[in-house]
Amino acid sequence: MTRISVKVDGTTYEDEVEPRLLLIHYLRDRLGLTGTPIGCDTSNCGACTVDLDGETVKSCSVLAVQADSGEVTTVQGLARDGEWHPLQKAFHERHALQCGYCTPGMIMAARDLLRENPAPDPQEVREALEGNLCRCTGYQNIVRAVLAASGQEATT
Amino acid sequence: MIPPAFEYTRPTSVDEAVRTLADGGEDAKVLAGGQSLLPLLRLRLAFPELVVDVGRIPELRGIREDEGTLVIGAMTTHHDVVRDPRVRRHAGLLAAATATVADPAVRHRGTLGGSLAHADPAGDLPAVILALDATLVAVGPGGRRSIPAREFFVDYLQTALRPDELLVQVEIPARDDWGFHYEKFQRVAQAWAVVGVAALVRRDDGRIAEARIGLTNMGSTPLRAEAAEEALTGATAVGAVRRAAETAADGTRPSSDPSASPEYRAHLARVLTRRAVLAAAGMG
């Protein structure tokens, strides 16, 4: 067992974990943060995307011990004072989800894009989300929602 | 899917990492960004007894220039490579190809050194490093040694690194004025390359003075298309590039898998070489 200290959505946790424990299993099974789903489990689909030290990662492809002394933000840590994050609002208002399984990863990946590029064009949005799969194929509204959250009205 | 159990250690210096690897012997495995190793562990295709995480060794990260050579620390992430202005200026081919690796979240974790040491012939960067005539620097119990890219890739997932050696940096000769292009054929956006072609071209007075062509996934290691490189020398027109590209698959032995037969891969190598060279030479 290895001792880790990780800040997740603003709370610091100290835990003993097996080195083989994946970050996604730590978040869901140990901390009960089930807002982040496991999709493909092969690092393709992006459903399990979270922020680690200011950058998106696929949490099925990171060990919990690699997050030691780091800071994790999940989709559950985005709301402020009971108010949804602008991306959460935009996904809701623009009907950017059907089954909703990919939504947490889509929002985390879109948030990463808007941090680097606050006013992306539609093609840039699509490229930034290339690691996130929506099996309902609801991509059009997802792109529209990201553009709306960036303060741009979609023309596509 | 849960990885098999392993011991875990996180050295804080190259010396400590090398000592740990030497003690661990054949059963130790280096963990860099983990974007290849973790899927292998989860699929239970790798069973290391000891995982040596080199993710917290500051000296392995970073990019610097040293008298006409670009020096990139092995643990520099793909994300940092793509964004670095020195890489874009001196090794634009590497920046362009790295931007096509997987997706943004994977590029945040994956590292240049990790992808080279993993040596998957379907990975994009081995062929790029080969085309750039880079040198890979390893540290072991006996000290440092430099390995030319041509000698580094030995076989499928096998490199010239010994079990107790750690890849610490990649040295790339600056090629500021060379044209470049990485042309990749893939089934879907984030998939592995079915075939990829890395082209570097130096033009002189309207003709191709020199060309370097690296091939992704045309054999058990990345390869140079030497016949095509030779045939391209002196080419002045699109027709000459077309004829030279017809030799791009000469001497290769590509594999067969559900994506492509060897014959189809050879066809792709010829087509993609033509496209890559025309783009690199500004003739497209």
Could you say which structural class the secondary elements and strand pairing of chain B correspond to? alpha+beta
The CATH architecture of the largest domain in chain A:
Roll
Instruction: Calculate the mean pLDDT score of chain A and round it.
Output: 96
- The oligomeric state is heterodimer
Largest sheet of chain A: 5 strands, mixed
CATH top level assignment of the largest domain in chain B: Alpha Beta
Order of helices and strands of chain B: EHEHEEEHHHHHHEEHEEEEEEEHHH
Strand content of chain A: 15-25%
Task: Bin the helical content of chain A.
Answer: 25-40%
State the gist of this model.
Chain A has 156 residues and is α+β, with helices and mostly antiparallel strands. Chain A has helices spanning 23-30, 86-93, 103-116, 122-128, 139-149, and strands at residues 2-8, 11-17, 49-52, 55-58, 71-73.
What does this structure look like?
The complex is a heterodimer of chains A (156) and B (284). Chain A is of the alpha+beta class and 156 residues long. Helix content of chain A is 31%, strand content 16%. Chain A has a five-stranded mixed β-sheet with strand order 2-1-5-3-4, sandwiched between helices. Chain B is an alpha+beta fold. Chain B folds into three domains: 7-53, Uridine Diphospho-n-acetylenolpyruvylglucosamine Reductase, domain 2 (2-Layer Sandwich), CATH 3.30.43; 60-170, Uridine Diphospho-n-acetylenolpyruvylglucosamine Reductase, domain 3; 180-280, CO dehydrogenase flavoprotein, C-terminal domain (Enolase-like, domain 1), CATH 3.30.390. Chain B is 33% helix and 26% strand. In chain B, the strands form four sheets. A five-stranded antiparallel β-sheet of chain B has the order 4-5-10-6-7. In chain B, β4 and β5 form a beta hairpin. Classes of the chains: A alpha+beta (156), B alpha+beta (284). At the A-B interface, β4 and α3 of A face α2 and α6 of B.
